Amino acid sequence: MKKPIVFALNSSKELAEQICEILGVELGKCEVKHFADGEILVELGESVRGKDVFFVQSTNKPVNDNLMELLIGIDACKRASAATINAIIPYYGYARQDRKAKPRQPISSKLVASLLECAGADRVVTMDLHATQIQGFFDIPADDISGLALIGEYFKTVEPGNDVVVVSPDHGGTVRARRLAEQLNAPLAIIDKRRPKPNVAEAMNLIGDVNGKTAIIIDDMVDTAGTLTAGIKMLKDKGAKKVYAACSHAILSGPAVERLKNAGIEEFVCTNTIDQRANQEAYPPMRVISVAPLLAATINAIEHDSSLSSALQNAIVEEEECVDIANE
After folding, report:
1. What's the alpha-carbon Rg for the chain, to the nearest Å?
2. Phi, psi at 190, each rounded to 5°
C-alpha cells in the first residue's frame, strides 16, 4: 500500500514527528512562509499526486494564523492532485462558539467547519471537542478522539489508592468526569458554578464529598485557569488533602501559569494537543502526556479501512503495557 504523507505546520511539529516515528514514515517536506504584511504561503517540498495526505495542526494561539496555515496547506494539496486530504486537528479552535448563547451571536465553530470543507478537506480528526455536536457541523467524515483514557491510566500509576474522588468543574463536564471516575473506580463530585462573562467564573457549591480525600479535577480545556483555580480553592476549603488538576487542552493564556503556580496543586496533567514545551520550562509540576499513539493509530486505521475504535483500544492497551514495564 502507498505510505501516507504526514505534514506538520507551525503549531504541531513535535507531535507530528512523534506520530511519524510510530508510523515508521518520514515527516513530509513542507515550508510555511510569511510575507511582510502577514500573508501566509505554504509550499510542499514533495509530490502528493495520488497520495493520502495528513496535515497535523492545532488551531491554538495564534488561532487565526494557524487556521489559515491549515486552510492554505489543504488548498495546496488539492491543487497538487492529492488522492485524499485529512486534517488532524488535535485542538479545534473556535469550538466554544458552538451555539447562539445570546441573540446576534455567530456560530463560529460551524464557520470553521465550512471553511475546512471548502478548502478541500476530505476528513477531519479532532480530539476532545468542547462540544461533541460539532461533529454534526461537517458534511465530511469527522472523528472526535478522546484522550481521557491516557489521563486515567496515568492517574492509576500516581494515585493507586481508593481515597480518590474525581471532580467536574461544572455541570457541563459531568459526563467527562464520570467517565474518568469509572476508569479509576472512584466517586464523583461536581462544582456548581456561575459564569457571569467569558473567562470569569465564580465557584458556588460542591455536590459530593472530598473531605480527607485526593481530588482530581478534570476539564476539557484550561484557558486563563480562572475557573480551575477557583475550583481548587473550593476543594481545599472543603477538606481535600491533595488536589490534582487535569485537562486535554492546556491553552494557558495570560495569567494562567502564574495562577497554577500559586494554586498549590500536586500536579497539573495535560496532553500535547497544544505544544507545552515553553510552559513546562516555566512550570515544572506540569505533566504532559503524548497523544501521538492515538493519532498514529487513527491514521493507520484510515489508511487500512479498519475499525477505528479497535485501533484506538489497541493503542491504549499498548500504552498501558509500556507503563507497567516502566514501573517494574
Report:
1. 20
2. -130, 135
Q: Kindly report, residue by residue over 88-104, the tens digit of the pLDDT.
A: 999 999 999 999 989 99
Which string of b and e fits 141-152 if b means at least 16 CB within 10 Å? ebbebbbbbbbb
Active-site position among 3, 100, 193, 242: 193
The three three-digit cell numbers of residue 83, written as one number: 488522492
Tens of pLDDT, residues 149-173: 999 999 999 987 779 999 999 888 9
DSSP SS3 for 249: strand
The C-alpha cell at 63 is 488561532
The distance from CA 271 to its chain's CA centroid, rounded to whole angstroms, is: 6
C-alpha cell at 3: 505510505
24: exposed, middle or buried (Cβ count in 10 Å: 0-12, 13-18, 19+)? exposed
For the question of residue 193 being annotated catalytic, the response is yes
CA atoms within a 13 Å half-sphere pointing along the CA-CB vector of 94 = 20
260: CB partners within 8 A, 6+ apart: 225, 228, 229, 245, 252, 268, 283, 285, 286
